[in-house]
Design brief:
Chain lengths: 232, 460
């Protein structure tokens, strides 16, 4: 299983932070839909991956030592052709090496550009007494400023997932506000249940962020993901 | 195993005292005054007789089997030695009321670990330390005098704090304000914890309502599992201290930075179907409503009042707490039209009916006619503490109507003369929920409706 391969590798390297590529591989294996994200270790590889995925693409620095990728100049979006990808590859490498000279950089993650949807955050943390706990909320200011989120204790039952989504104050925004497409709520519920199952069986995972998740009329996709492992 | 605590056939009190006022005296007296009919052994190396009971020098000196040991000793060291003696004697249940353990940190923590270790090795179940144990009809180990018989009712109260649980128990028993069956204080819960008791009382068909106050949650994951099962069968009212504590974890994720202990506990309450109380009065008030009133199928409320302004305030409160005030049906309005000078609405203003047929008769006939309306699931009845209310209260009209109509009522009293109001609140409050404010009554009823709707949905 990919999960145990990645956990084993992280264990050997004595690190608790997984790369976005690793996080998405684990989530993908758990049945959670993520944007196709693959590692390029050279400019040529980045171009080849971009052509395979189809433009436009996103390039992101892949390093467990750089957690604030944008701040380090490690993210370039909406790259529409080969030339843009090549330039972005060099720019990212240069600015990240300058911003974080000691960071161990494994390469650059190439991913398809997801079309915009309703921004959602789904996450997991561990409470010392309750164990794994899931969080659901709307992204952006709703989570940052208003803390409009709902929690449930793992394992979730089906009604827990729908209760979580019903509980947030901004729920109307998921139902299609002012002509926006409604979000595929059953799909989001299913995502929560799959994350619950993953958290329930994987003690080694300490924290998960799926932020943002783009929710569409049909389906939803995890655009960025982060997994932190237990220290021991 | 838990039965040894609640239905022991023999009890020893270590640290028993012959001096009235001392804890070791109060406990022996409380057990003696309860319905406990087994063997009671006070233990004290320096006395011969306490309250007519022969005193023993130590646990090991007591003849025959011993189900339960209660200790109230001045030092943790002496408690450790006693638990060791209990192990030798083959005792399987011990309530440690003394303080000075983990709650003190440092050495106290070490002493607590010692008693836990001894208990584990010898299959002893421990309640406490730093608790006031049990108040029930069959056994009372509380540190406050229990002056009347414990009702043997359908409500249990689980508390963490020793003093508060003991205080609430004495208050409830003396004032007959709640049909309590057991109050249990689990203190530092070094062994027996909320999960053990929730499971025990959940399986006890004599228990209809569980009220629980916790400062710490021992095993949240297990609590969720057990509470979900129990709350599906009977209401579990839950008050949690320390809810405002900020997320103490050093989280690396966004999720972790938002999650706080308070939010997680609230999630657990919602997820399990428990009912959240916000203070100790609510813990008791909600239990009163749940233990005396039938469960409503919905949240549609009739407000019964004599004063329009009060009706308006109650309507606002109902809206804020998720209760609806529907219109009465045409046939109900038709039936009631002779009692009203203006069209009957909701709030139901009984003023005109009272001027026509008097207060008692109005409560006896006009109120139930409106209450029976199929659009109505429950009622808030506002009474005043004046002389004219006395007759209706003495005739127990509201109790009778609740039984006949099969729907719940909460009573609110916000005005009156003390000589009537206090007496009515006390007397009527023994049997049905009576609140000194509109908001407390409305809130309690909203919790009842919420639970009733959930239960109704599940059985549908």
């Amino acid at each position: 299983m990919i999960l145990y391969e990645i956990l084993g590798k992280a264990g050997e390297e004595k690190r608790t932070v997984l790369t976005e590529i690793e996080a998405k591989a684990i989530l993908g294996e758990a049945g959670i839909n993520c944007t196709d994200t693959q590692l390029a270790t050279s400019k040529e590889e980045a171009v080849a991956l971009s052509e395979k995925m189809g433009y436009p693409v996103v390039l992101k620095i892949s390093s467990v030592d750089i957690s604030h990728k944008s701040d380090a100049g490690g993210v370039k979006v909406n790259l529409k052709d080969k030339a843009a990808v090549e330039k972005a590859f060099d720019d990212i490498m240069n600015s990240c090496k300058a911003a974080c000279p000691h960071a161990n950089i494994e390469g650059i993650a190439v991913q398809g550009l997801a079309k915009a949807g309703t921004e959602v955050i789904i996450g997991m943390i561990k409470d010392p007494s309750f164990g794994p706990v899931l969080m659901f909320g709307l992204g952006g200011i709703f989570v940052e400023v208003l803390k409009d989120v709902a929690f449930r204790i793992v394992p979730l039952e089906k009604n827990d997932a729908s209760d979580m989504i019903n509980e947030i104050k901004g729920k109307k925004l998921l139902e299609g506000y002012r002509g926006q497409d409604p979000a595929d709520i059953p799909f989001l519920e299913d995502m929560l249940l799959k994350l619950s199952a993953l958290a329930d069986k994987t003690e080694a995972i300490a924290e998960i962020d799926m932020n943002p998740v783009f929710a569409y009329k049909q389906g939803a996709v995890v655009v960025d993901a982060r997994i932190i492992l237990e220290a021991d | 195993m838990m039965d040894l605590f609640f239905k022991p056939e023999s009890i020893a009190v270590i640290g028993a005292s012959g001096t009235p006022g001392k804890l070791g005296y109060v406990i022996v007296k409380n057990i003696a005054d309860s319905d406990f009919a087994g063997d009671l052994y006070p233990v004290n190396p320096k006395s011969d007789e306490i309250l007519g009971y022969k005193v023993y020098r130590s646990v090991t000196e007591i003849p025959g089997e011993l189900d339960l040991v209660v200790t109230v000793l001045p030092t943790p060291k002496m408690t450790v030695a006693t638990v060791e003696e209990c192990a030798k004697k083959g005792v399987k249940a011990v309530i440690i009321e003394s303080a000075g353990f983990a709650e003190m940190g440092g050495e106290g923590k070490v002493f607590q670990q010692q008693i836990v270790d001894i208990a584990k090795q010898n299959n002893i179940r421990l309640m406490g330390p730093n608790c006031s144990g049990i108040v029930s009809r069959d056994i009372v180990t509380s540190i406050y005098p229990i002056t009347k018989k414990v009702p043997g009712g359908n409500v249990v109260l689980i508390g963490q704090s020793g003093l508060l649980a003991a205080g609430m128990a004495s208050d409830i028993v003396e004032n007959e304000s709640l049909n309590i069956s057991r109050v249990c204080s689990i203190g530092n819960k070094c062994d027996v914890n909320e999960n053990d008791l929730l499971e025990y009382f959940g399986n006890d068909d004599g228990v209809d309502v569980i009220s629980m106050y916790l400062e710490t949650i021992t095993d949240g994951r297990k609590l969720v599992r057990i509470a979900k099962e129990v709350a599906a069968k009977k209401p579990v009212i839950f008050l949690s201290g320390g809810r405002t504590e900020a997320g103490a974890r050093a989280a690396m994720s966004h999720t972790g930075s938002i999650a706080s202990n308070a939010r997680i506990v609230e999630a657990a309450v919602k997820q399990t179907g428990m009912i959240m109380a916000d203070d100790f009065t609510e813990l008791k008030d909600f239990a009163k409503v749940f233990s005396t009133q039938p469960l409503p199928k919905g949240n549609r409320v009739a407000v019964i009042t004599l004063a329009g302004s009060v009706g308006v305030n109650v309507s606002d409160l109902c809206a804020a707490h998720g209760l609806e005030l529907p219109k009465l049906r045409e046939e109900t309005r038709e039936k009631l039209k002779d009692m009203f000078d203006t069209p009957v609405s909701n709030p139901v203003d009984l003023y005109f009916s009272v001027t026509k047929i008097g207060f008692t008769k109005t409560l006896e006939t006009t109120f139930p006619d409106a209450f029976r309306d199929p659009n109505i699931d429950a009622a808030v009845v506002i009474l005043a503490g004046f002389k004219y209310t006395r007759e209706a209260v003495e005739k127990k009209i509201i109790q009778k109507i609740v039984r006949e109509v099969g729907k719940p009522v909460v009573v609110c009293m916000i005005v009156g003369y003390n000589k009537y109001k206090n007496v009515i609140m006390d007397e009527m409050g023994k049997e049905i929920p009576v609140f000194p404010s509109l908001i407390s009554g409305v809130k309690a009823l909203s919790r009842l409706c919420e639970y009733g709707i959930r239960k109704h949905k599940k059985s549908a």
